[in-house]
Amino acid sequence: MADTPALDRIRVGSAPDSWGVWFPDDPQQVPWERFLDEVAEAGYSWIELGPYGYLPTDPARLTDEVNKRNLKVSAGTVFTGLHRGPSVWEPTWEHVSQVAALTQAMGAGHLVVIPSFWRDDKTAEILEPPELTAEQWAYLTKGMERLGHEVKETYGLDIVVHPHADTHIDTEDHVERFLDSTDSELVNLCLDTGHYAYCGGDSVKLIETYGERIGYLHLKQVDPEILADVVANEVPFGPAVQRGVMCEPPSGVPELGPVLTAAQGLGVELFAIVEQDMYPCEPDKPLPIAVRTRKFLRSCGA
């Protein structure tokens, strides 16, 4: 592997998502202690908090738990529906404040912001139209700018908005429209390679075109055969995950080597957090995948 260039600006980690964790509390999920033990055993040094309430929310206790496993926290995650207008600001800020306070206390610098789903990921019920009106786009972009400003002022964190399947920021057109409509001083992107491929986007092209807006990476791949069936039959995201649409690297798309090389070329330090959606999964499934994935990423230079 001597000829693999070192990706010395990329800081690799993993997240509860790669252990099948989608909810703060769910009997189908592994206990948080096991997640922390196994993510450290797999060779990762950085983690995200996952759904608020899955890991301990007392900063002193969580600090103790991550320190004794030689782990550090890169980000927290929040869900928002800011396209609905000013009326949702107060409940949104209440949720964001909880997560941001813990994220700040853990020494992390980022808050990953996921737009709300237009289709329920468990029941497949259509909750809203998949396309926003011009007014809703304005609410969304201005709301995210306000969120970015407030989170920075209050907690010293940078928000990175996560394009996500079955949300209003998903396809290449939607992502570009969002970036073109927001201020880079306030809002940047968490590029999730799997979600972007799921929605037809090209991660390397996005990095090369909007490089200054890429503030954070989630690494995952999709199985092209399963994805083709998911798209053809309009399968919602939750059931698609249960079919295995998000697969273990390097068996899917996009190729992660070129994505990481393009990211390294931006000349800034970036987190690259592995997230292989596997909810729900057998408790013994995640660790071997995590070990192999960490080994694969080392072979790419990360």
Automatic annotation (TrEMBL):
Residue stretches making up the Xylose isomerase-like TIM barrel domain: 36-238
Segments traversing the membrane: none
Coiled coil spans: none
Pfam families: AP_endonuc_2
Domain of life: Bacteria
PANTHER family per the UniProt record, alphabetical: HYDROXYPYRUVATE ISOMERASE, INOSOSE DEHYDRATASE
Listed name of the protein: Xylose isomerase-like TIM barrel domain-containing protein
Organism phylogeny: Bacteria, Bacillati, Actinomycetota, Actinomycetes, Kitasatosporales
